[in-house]
Amino acid sequence: MNRLQQITVLGATGSVGLSTLDVIARHPNLYQVFALTGFTRLSELLALCIRYLPRFAVVPEVELARGMQQHLQAAGLATQVLVGEEGLCQVSVDTEVDTVVAVIVGAAGLRPTLAAVNAGKKILLANKEALVMSGALFMQAVRKSGAVLLPLDSEHNAIFQCMPNNFASGLSQVGVRRILLTASGGPFWPNPSVDLEHVSPDQACAHPNWSMGRKISVDSASMMNKGLELIEACWLFDAKSDQIEVVIHPQSVIHSLVDYVDGSMLAQLGNPDMRTPIANALAWPERIDSGVAPLDLLAIARLDFEMPDEQRFPCLCLARQAAEIGNSAPVILNAANEVAVTAFLDGRIRFPQIASIIEDVLNLEPVVVVDDLGAVFEADARARTLAAQWLNRNVR
Ligand code: NAD
Ligand code: MG
């Protein structure tokens, strides 16, 4: 019998982390949890450790680690607690680990995910910000180390499923004309009369089809999520941004499509539940049960498609521009967006100001070549400083 696949889940306490553990729990004959990491909600991390018995748990600070270690010992567990980014990197590169599920939100996921890539692991990537920030370095490292990179983002997983095996030889080589990235449009799309100046964080997070963490929920409402996904798709599938079209599809049933030169268009359909792409990537190239109910086509009855409204949701356009400019432009875009979304969630700015901050920071910060991780984080830090200065100037 094959040994159990050892899995590290970076960001286990989050929405995608919990879905990942749900799929893993359905297949105790295939997978074993090696390490779980959390940043906040550490009582939930403790409960997950008691349930999944990992070898390691990672928390952000020494003091928290001490408390966690005591609780684990009291529960009779041998789980060892590690700390901070160093701990995250350690559980990503350990020789025992087969697969790293990269589901930390934001720039914080970049170093450990890249460490897993450099160690040649199988990486299941949902942390799109990591790829947006360092796409060229990241994909170079994948090629060099022989890591297997599989997309968890539902759209990218759908595209992956619709692509021929040899897509890495170039889209035109394999007869692909374009990629169609579907977008639900978020909670504000269906109702153009909603005054975006006065929407609350809770309204922005009330996604019609997906249940997700708060940062990506706001990104979905602003359409920045689709912008980040456009950049993510460029790197994953070696596509130019003009080979990727965004289509609003409010039902979130078609997760994306690939258009071939012979007129064929392949789509992947399914209920909007992250356990499908997670199960697909975990077991690839095989298939395993994910716990997701089969799609009821008769209940859905219709599939709608519309053009995105880039006037009302300018973030998509800003992301496309950053993709075209390249170099540090996507780093700046991502950093300004992270600061702006946090400020919106904290009630400091109004929803449309998210796009204003990003646009102003993109205009102010010169674009530079980012050929190592140091340069990426320097550009990231400068953009965060500019965004913070914007807030100081414009927010009481
Ligand atoms: P979430 O907020 O629910 O969870 C985030 C996880 O990251 C948590 O475990 C948290 O403890 C950890 N974390 C946060 N800040 C950290 C830091 N500074 N250092 C270390 N760990 C930190 O988010 P989510 O919805 O699960 O999304 C995670 C990632 O997956 C994001 O990049 C998101 O864009 C992407 N994604 C999510 C979905 C979804 O359905 N939720 C779908 C596609 C892609
Ligand atoms: Mg997505």
From TrEMBL:
Ranges for domain 1-deoxy-D-xylulose 5-phosphate reductoisomerase C-terminal: 149-237
Residue ranges of every copy of the 1-deoxy-D-xylulose 5-phosphate reductoisomerase N-terminal domain listed in the record: 7-135
Reaction catalysis annotation: 2-C-methyl-D-erythritol 4-phosphate + NADP(+) = 1-deoxy-D-xylulose 5-phosphate + NADPH + H(+)
Gene3D superfamilies cross-referenced by the UniProt entry: 1.10.1740.10, NAD(P)-binding Rossmann-like Domain (3.40.50.720)
Residue positions binding Mn(2+): 153, 155, 229
Residue ranges occupied by any DXP reductoisomerase C-terminal domain in the UniProt entry: 269-385
Pathway the protein takes part in: Isoprenoid biosynthesis; isopentenyl diphosphate biosynthesis via DXP pathway; isopentenyl diphosphate from 1-deoxy-D-xylulose 5-phosphate: step 1/6
InterPro entries noted in UniProt: DXP_reductoisomerase (IPR003821), DXP_reductoisomerase_C (IPR013644), DXP_reductoisomerase_N (IPR013512), DXPR_C (IPR026877), DXPR_C_sf (IPR036169), NAD(P)-bd_dom_sf (IPR036291)
Enzyme Commission number(s) from the entry: 1.1.1.267
Family: Belongs to the DXR family.
Record PANTHER family: 1-DEOXY-D-XYLULOSE 5-PHOSPHATE REDUCTOISOMERASE (PTHR30525), 1-DEOXY-D-XYLULOSE 5-PHOSPHATE REDUCTOISOMERASE, CHLOROPLASTIC (PTHR30525:SF0)
Protein name: 1-deoxy-D-xylulose 5-phosphate reductoisomerase
Name of the gene this protein is made from: dxr
